[in-house]
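Tokens as discussed.
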């Protein structure tokens, strides 16, 4: 179900408002706005319900927002669809965000977390270094064990290797989509 596309020009020079608390759909949607809609966009974080938008504000990923979940689609999917910016790479990113956010497996995300990677530790300045040699995964597009296009999610705490889906490892603090080398 495709909504009518909005001219991106109508979305420039706005303050983008979303609910407090960072989660994958809000992070990805804010990235999309800054990268593809308005590189100078400002963001405002407010309570989840009851916020009355001011002139020049656009709400996203919150109750009664102009851009939010519709049917079985997450906010990023709606933004991509309604702005008409349907690059295949963006659509794939939205699929990954969807599966992480909605946990419905619609786009085939595996049902469990990797959990096999050692915990990453950062020093006092926030710098972390990590090296891994793993012959069970591939960076070859199309290979059955390829991780290209898969999500990389970093949680705050170590994985307990038992609890699903995130190993009781606390909130997500970073995420990315693995690209081609």
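Sequence:
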């Amino acid at each position: 179900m495709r909504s009518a596309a909005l001219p991106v020009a109508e979305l420039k020079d706005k303050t983008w408002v979303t609910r407090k608390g960072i989660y994958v759909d809000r992070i990805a949607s804010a990235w999309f706005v800054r990268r593809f809609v308005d590189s100078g966009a400002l963001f405002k974080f407010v309570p989840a319900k009851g916020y009355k938008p001011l002139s020049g504000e656009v709400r996203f990923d919150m109750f009664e927002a102009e851009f939010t979940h519709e049917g079985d689609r997450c906010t990023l999917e709606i933004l991509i669809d309604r702005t008409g910016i349907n690059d295949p790479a963006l659509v794939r990113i939205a699929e990954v965000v969807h599966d992480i956010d909605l946990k419905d497996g619609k786009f085939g995300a595996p049902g469990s977390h990797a959990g096999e990677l050692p915990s990453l530790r950062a020093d006092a300045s926030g710098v972390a270094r990590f090296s891994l040699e793993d012959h069970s995964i591939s960076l070859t597009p199309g290979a059955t064990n390829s991780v290209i296009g898969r999500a990389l999610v970093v949680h705050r705490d170590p994985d307990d290797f038992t609890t699903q889906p995130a190993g009781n490892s606390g909130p997500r603090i970073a995420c990315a989509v693995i690209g081609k080398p």
